[in-house]
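FIELD: query
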Amino acid sequence: MRHDMIRQMVRDLFDTIGEVAVSATLRQKTQGAYEPGSGASETTTDTTIRLVRTEKSLSDTANAVGTPINPTLHHALIECEDVTPKADDDLIIGSSTFTLLQAVAVDTGASILYEVSYQ
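FIELD: result
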């Protein structure tokens, strides 16, 4: 299958599932050159993406009360054609900001569909 066909199929799938695909922002941070005495500057780039959560959050109301020992780890599929997500990027969903721990391409090289883990 050609990459352009895979990209179109992923776009169509995210369009078809409608509200299940949540609009989110991927914020990528880039470190500038280090300048002695002042530190390195950081720039950010925001990219709009669509996200489908693939696992239920451990903070569900049906779970036992109390603070979990480990922070909740979330998983999702994201449609992201403009940039390549990577670990330590920020994922902004609504008013919540998460950090990507892992991003794996799952589209045989078409550069549009990624499985991510974040917390």
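FIELD: remark
Residues 3-16 form the longest helix (14 residues).
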